[in-house]
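Ticket #4471: structure export looks truncated?
Reporter: QA, pipeline team
Priority: medium

Steps to reproduce: submit the single chain below to the structure queue and open the exported record.
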Amino acid sequence: MTYESDIAVVGLGVMGANLALNLADSGRKVNVYNRTTAVTEEFMAGEASTKDVTGASTIEEMISTLTRPRVILVMVKAGPPVDAVIEELSTHLEPGDVIIDGGNSLYTDTARRGDMLAERGLRYIGMGVSGGEEGARYGPSLMPGGATAAWPVVEEMLKGIAAIAPDGSPCCEWIGPGGAGHFVKMVHNGIEYGDMQVIAEAYDLMRRGLGMTPSEIAEVFATWDHGRLRSYLIEITAEILDTTENGEPIIDKILDAAGQKGTGKWTVVASMEFGEPTTLVAEAVYARIVSSDPDRRAEMAKLFDGPIERLTTIDVDDVESALYASKIVSYAQGFRLLRSASEEHSWQLDLGTIASIWRAGCIIRAAFLEDITDAYAAEPGLGDLTTSPFFSSALSKAEPSWRRVVSGAAAAGVPAPAYSSALGYFDGMRSPRLPANLIQAQRDYFGAHTFERVDRPRGEFFHHGWGGER
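Actual output as written to the record:
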């Protein structure tokens, strides 16, 4: 058979189908395959029928259409399905061919698969894809990493379908070796959890705390979308709150039980493994878990009459400042985690570049990321975003409002776990002395775990005879 396809896409779910159409629009000849033949036929009968796309009924047929080195984009559910597809593909491929996993795979799985395929002479890329259905179709943020030798083969193709940032650059750059691409996507998703939670808390504070209607809150978010909080999530929040059904706000008809797919949890687990405090993402994950049991919450509400009263000590400007400050902390924590993982795995992540490719296409795209990109451009070795002049100044200005919101929410009985967690982190990091000295004394007392002393050099450890001195 004549070789004619530039790339094959395996898996025609929402993301795979839209990426295939995007690739075709960028001038690539695309071949598609889905395990269920009816799905392929339905796809080919739709918009794909007007594109340079062909369908295959078997893996062998699909591979036979590809130019060498062959490039195959796998878009199937993370976990064992990816392993199964890779195993089937690899038996038909040749050394030098490229497999790209564009799903939300755990980065350690990606590293393992890359090592295994490298032994067979195949080049493997684990690529984070952000932007949802619309992004996949018209321009996502792409985070490829893995076999460095594969990048020259796919660079032009991937940049050709990526979103375009305000400065005209594509939102796609090589991230690093091993599981770097999927790790960065995982942290991106963790930050996304945090963004959604701080927005939800702002909504709750205005709705229950300030007694505003959804349409009034929608106007506030629409105003914020023209300021420093301008972002995709703020934009859609305004639209959501302004949407009605039969004349009533649809937001009031939606069950308050949030779902999750695991990347937020993975971020928190990784933060513990690398010793970095992603406290706001953790609170966002736990807030979803708390929300997921509305029946138990209903029982608790009958048992405990919380204060839940109007907030008279804050206004919407205070809420905006608390949201902004908490957002700064969340991103600072996320980038600290990226830096630590990079050092541990020798990935040499360029944090400024990562911020830059999140500026468009992805779910967390925001004007805010321009400021982060600028911060790393000014200081590439920046260890913590909160210490950069721009963000440290912003935190100082927001601090009074931030404290009013957290204290007011606690007094009124309106939960604000993300704002509280972010403020706690801020206060902890700015404290030259913490009560961890007592914890170390307790650990030494019951377990002889030793401690360091402030009057001795770091690295020297001591044990005290506590019982004897008593």
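Status: closed, not a bug. The export was complete when the record was re-opened. Leaving a note from the reviewer for reference: The chain is about 55% helix and 10% strand.
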